[in-house]
Design a protein that fits this description.
The protein is α/β, with parallel strands linked by helices. It is about 45% helix and about 25% strand. The two termini are about 15 Å apart.
């Protein structure tokens, strides 16, 4: 089972996006789990993660996270601000799926 990790400051603002992504995953009949975590909880939740997506408000974490995840071969990207603001679960899922293909 593939796992997508969303990171925000407290892990709360992404919970609605997780629900929207889960709806898109169910509609596509995919075997993927999505979890939202706070920046401080990344290390204890990283096992099995294939993609890390950052909420726009924590974009400042991208450089350090990319460096950290590089050794684990986990791609890191920032969620598009409009997709995040509109809670477009399908677009964010598609972004993660594209990153998994590499």
């Amino acid at each position: 089972m593939k796992k997508i990790m969303l990171i925000c400051s407290a892990g709360m603002s992404t919970s609605l996006l997780v629900k929207k992504m889960e709806e898109a995953i169910a509609a596509k009949d995919l075997e993927i789990t999505v979890l939202a975590v706070a920046e401080a909880d990344v290390d204890k939740n990283i096992k099995g993660v294939k993609v890390v997506l950052l909420a726009p408000q924590v974009r400042y974490l991208a450089k350090n996270l990319k460096r950290k995840m590089e050794s684990l071969e986990i791609p890191v990207a920032i969620i598009d601000g409009i997709d995040y603001g509109t809670m477009d679960g399908e677009k964010v899922l598609n972004q993660a799926l594209f990153m998994m293909r590499d």
